[in-house]
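User: Hello! I'm new to structural biology and keep hearing that structure can be predicted from sequence alone. Could you demonstrate with XRE family transcriptional regulator, thiamine biosynthesis regulator? Please show me the input and the output so I can see what each looks like.

Assistant: Of course. The first part below is the input, the amino acid sequence of XRE family transcriptional regulator, thiamine biosynthesis regulator. The second part is the output, the predicted structure written as tokens.
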Amino acid sequence: MQFVEEIVVDEFLPTVRSLLAGELRERGLTQSDVAAVLGISQSAVSKYAHGDVATNDRIAEDDRVETLVSELADGLASGAITPVQALIEIEVLVRDLESGGDVLAQLHEEAVPELADHGASFRIHDPESDLRTSERVLSSLRRGLRILENASGFAGLIPAVGSNLVACTPDAEDVDDVAGVPGRIFDVKGQATVPADPEFGVSEHVATVLLAAREQGADAAAATNVRYDPKLLAELVDRGHVTAEFDESADVGESVAEALAVDPDATVLYQTGGMGIEPLIYVLGPDAESVADTIRSLL
């Protein structure tokens, strides 16, 4: 397994440093000056100058790399560009070269041929690729779950039916586009227990409420459910949340739509239960961490 960041460290960084060191020396900077500008030792500058550091020709010969190195060398030599500004410019270039089809992406795919198994049109380095989008959602969800697991007292907010923390992709249309905890989160002897890693398509209940809210224009991309308590509702209102009640005994989508028609800014939905239906509070938010933080603030 090799990450693209390893390509950056092992191939890109030595190459760009070597090119910059050479360009700066050509512009009259001493070995000591170059070391100070690049934030490296003089012995490292000497190694670059004598070709003792392996570089990557494909990176060195990339037009954007050549152009940026020349521009940065001019700016650093004259003082028009600071080392921090140069670092930012290089970081931007790295992100560009990691995009699908560019040199860092090519080097990574060559180092990990298995990436081809995802299909000819797939590019892991495309920030808008489905895989990256899904992984961002799952990563956010895992962070949110850690917040809840480590929140003292959260187990006391878990309803009898269990809680779930869910998050969806930006263009979510159905429950398959919503990730959650398989089997839900339960209170096991006073400890919130997450039985498995989050997956897509495993939450129907909380996912349905989130999707229904989004259909009515809500900005939410994540949600969780906790037990109903008027005191919790009051606390959420005190913290700036807008609440709206809906009837879960009816069609959830229609009921949530009716509730948000009355309070379109609602970030907390709740229902007070009924025959065979446990009363619950649903907290919505822009991402899983934000939702988890809201719950933690109630403890």
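User: So the tokens describe the shape?

Assistant: Right, they're a compact way of writing down the 3D structure. Reading them back into a model, for example: Residues 130-297 form a domain with the L-fuculose-1-phosphate Aldolase fold (CATH 3.40.225.10).
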